[in-house]
């Protein structure tokens, strides 16, 4: 381990310390009362407590972020670019970047400037593409296999075809919480640790499960999703085409919120949202 200098430790211990700086570093110098490096449970509790004090100083930064994005969306509207914002409240815990690099091996994607959890635009776009494919499969393809060259997928998400590459016309911004969120300490309980580590050739029921704690965003947090549609070649869309775009993108978000989910562990119900405002 590389020790954290004492001056940096003191900086990170301040209540105003940015949580995105503190989170991946606190494990290096966090010790328990016995002078030992703290356990996963102890470190998660420490990070959870630190998040509460650190987040309290991020409200103004978050508000400025929202104002900048809103101003950009308004600018696009003035330029006659189709653009909307959607607000949705999480109905289950939300996990962002659980597998990202972190000393505890249970990380979290945090905004560099505010230190708060957010959903990167690239992640949103990936979920929307999957949601679009789900909608297409339900409507057009009885076998559930949606080809990559489906005209709707290409229109919104582009194509890397060597013969006819195209950029996607759907523009997505990072999604930030409307208000400073609260975290919670969650748990996963793998039952076959020795099998997963390669010590056992087969999973057996005699192993003792080893609980692993991790941080998640508590349910009930409203996120603001913003999107725009920029046609190829600066094409001017008719009113009917604009309505089609709005309907199709709304359908993607509806499926993403309630069926596909955002973040990790969506297969067991994490990352679900309920749209509360916007189109």
Keywords:
five-stranded antiparallel beta sheet; 7 strands; 279 residues; 14% strand; two-stranded antiparallel ribbon
Structure description:
By secondary structure, the protein is α+β, with helices and mostly antiparallel strands. It has a domain at 59-189 and 216-278. It has 9 helices and 7 strands. It has helices spanning 6-12, 19-22, 26-29, 40-55, 59-78, 121-139, 151-157, 193-196, 239-260, and strands at 82-90, 170-172, 176-177, 183-188, 212-217, 222-229, 273-278. The strands form 2 sheets. Strands 1, 2, 3, 6 and 7 form a 5-stranded antiparallel sheet that branches. Strands 4-5 form a two-stranded antiparallel ribbon. α6 crosses α9 (239-260). The longest helix has 22 residues, at 239-260. It is globular. The chain starts with 5 loop residues before the first helix and ends with a strand.
Task: Give a quick summary of the entry.
With 279 residues, the protein is α+β, with helices and mostly antiparallel strands. Helix content is 37%, strand content 14%. The chain has helices at 6-12, 19-22, 26-29, 40-55, 59-78, 121-139, 151-157, 193-196, 239-260, and strands at 82-90, 170-172, 176-177, 183-188, 212-217, 222-229, 273-278.
């Amino acid at each position: 381990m590389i020790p954290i200098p004492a001056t940096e430790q003191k900086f990170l211990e301040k209540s105003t310390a940015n949580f995105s700086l503190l989170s991946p570093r606190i494990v290096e110098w966090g010790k328990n009362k016995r002078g030992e490096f703290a356990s996963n449970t102890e470190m998660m509790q420490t990070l959870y407590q630190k998040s509460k004090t650190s987040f309290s100083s991020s409200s103004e930064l978050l508000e400025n972020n929202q104002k900048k994005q809103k101003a950009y969306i308004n600018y696009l509207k003035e330029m006659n670019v189709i653009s909307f914002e959607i607000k949705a409240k999480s109905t289950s815990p939300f996990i962002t970047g659980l597998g990202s690099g972190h000393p505890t091996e249970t990380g979290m994607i945090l905004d560099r400037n505010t230190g708060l959890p957010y959903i990167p635009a690239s992640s949103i776009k990936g979920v929307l593409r999957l949601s679009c494919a789900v909608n297409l499969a339900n409507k057009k393809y009885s076998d559930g296999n949606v080809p990559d060259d489906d005209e709707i997928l290409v229109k919104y998400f582009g194509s890397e075809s060597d013969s006819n590459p195209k950029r996607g016309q759907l523009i997505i911004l990072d999604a930030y919480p409307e208000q400073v969120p609260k975290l919670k300490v969650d748990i996963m309980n793998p039952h076959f640790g020795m099998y997963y580590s390669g010590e056992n050739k087969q999973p057996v029921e005699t192993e003792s499960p080893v609980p692993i704690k991790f941080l998640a965003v508590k349910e009930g947090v409203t996120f603001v999703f913003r999107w725009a549609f920029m046609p190829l070649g600066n094409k001017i869309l008719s009113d009917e085409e604009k309505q089609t775009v709005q309907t199709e993108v709304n359908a993607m978000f509806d499926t993403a919120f309630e069926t596909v989910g955002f973040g990790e562990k969506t297969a067991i119900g994490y990352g679900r949202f309920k749209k509360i405002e916007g189109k």
